[in-house]
């Protein structure tokens, strides 16, 4: 019975996270309340940027280790909000890996895994796509609540936090490597 329920929830989650822009995602509590974005980019002028909340939680790689965005103070931080259940997240993952490689050591990427009910599917996602940057496991999505000015309400979403720790840009939906590299260049 438990396996059948888990399979049903996974199927519903995958069906809810589709390429239709503006559609309501749903399924088993994993993606409820999230929409799929259309790739809209918002860049906040430097004089209007608000401080980003500190993101802190267990490492997806090792739950006994905590990751904090404060560890990357002074660097541009690219935060990608994703779920292993999300088809657009799987499509965008290679683009994020490419952008991370292009931007090098002066920009830090940080994944924020949300709404995965266990770590195993998220860990498989990271392995399958060769994601080497750190990821925080946030199964209940609590860390998303801190983003008041530019909340990442769609999955996937990508936020760019400037070197002063302020939210500088947001992409709602998938982003490709070229666009993300350009956004980081605009934020510098």
Question: Layout of helices and strands, plus pairs?
Answer:
Elements: H1 2-16, E1 40-43, E2 56-58, E3 66-68, E4 76-82, H2 87-103, E5 107-114, H3 119-129, E6 135-138, E7 157-161, E8 167-172, H4 177-187
Helix pairs in contact: 2-4
Any overview of this molecule?
The structure is a single chain. The protein has a single domain, classed as Glutaredoxin (3-Layer(aba) Sandwich), CATH 3.40.30.10. It has 4 helices and 8 strands; from the N terminus they run H-E-E-E-E-H-E-H-E-E-E-H. It has helices at residues 2-16, 87-103, 119-129, 177-187, and strands spanning 40-43, 56-58, 66-68, 76-82, 107-114, 135-138, 157-161, 167-172. A hairpin with a 5-residue loop joins strand 7 and strand 8. Mean pLDDT is 82; it is low at 1-34.
């Amino acid at each position: 019975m438990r396996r059948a329920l888990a399979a049903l929830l996974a199927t519903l989650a995958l069906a809810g996270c589709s390429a239709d822009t503006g559609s309501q995602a749903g399924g088993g509590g994993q993606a409820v309340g999230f929409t799929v974005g259309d790739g809209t980019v918002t860049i906040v002028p430097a004089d209007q940027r608000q401080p980003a909340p500190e993101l802190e939680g267990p490492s997806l790689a090792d739950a006994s280790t905590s990751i904090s965005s404060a560890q990357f103070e002074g660097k541009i931080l690219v935060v990608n909000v994703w779920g292993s259940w999300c088809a657009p997240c799987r499509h965008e993952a290679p683009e994020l890996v490419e952008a991370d490689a292009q931007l090098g050591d002066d920009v830090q990427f940080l994944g924020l895994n949300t709404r995965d009910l266990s770590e195993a599917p998220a860990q498989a996602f990271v392995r399958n796509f060769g994601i080497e940057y750190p990821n925080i496991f946030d199964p209940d999505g609590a860390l998303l609540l801190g983003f008041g000015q530019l909340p990442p309400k769609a999955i996937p979403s990508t936020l760019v936090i400037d070197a002063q720790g302020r939210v500088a840009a947001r992409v709602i939906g998938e982003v490709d490597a070229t666009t993300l590299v350009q956004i980081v260049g605009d934020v510098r």
